Input
Amino acid sequence: MLWAAVVALPTLSGGCNPLTLGWFTPIPVQPWVAERMDQKYNHRNDGRVPILPPIRNGYPPPICEDPPSDAEVLRALPKVARGIPYIYEEFRDDVTIVKNRLVDKIDPPRFFPLIGMAQLHHCHWECVVYYTEVIQSDYPFPQYTKRNRVQVVYIDKDHLHLYVGPNADMQRQITQEMTKY
Output
């Protein structure tokens, strides 16, 4: 029995047995997992609604001054085809983004769960993306195609303004607490 264990030990502990590495056994991971994790953890605030200080009486109402960033617009575009290197590759070159504000309005105060009384400020943007689509293939026959393309993306940058009532002192106090001014 001891002789059988001595003969079987090298056979089971080497070669292509995947269980020999213990905790260090490699686990296959699909290539899209890294992209999905990047989207999930690096761009968390893309879909979130910020809560801003109240709109003060006697002051002009705020306007939508912050257009979507170029990175937000490019993330909202349809994804480029993954392709196979040297067989089929697709690129976007000479990207130009034009941003137009479509809607800038403030709703009357209403109750929002987990927030309380607030006013919804609608900021809708139309982003026109001009770019050159390049499709390249080197195998079996070299081919290079350039086309001018235009894509339109609509992005909502809505946010909430707390509503504390018409009391000017309360509005000033809440604004001071939120902005530290």
Summary: The two ends are 82 Å apart (CA to CA).
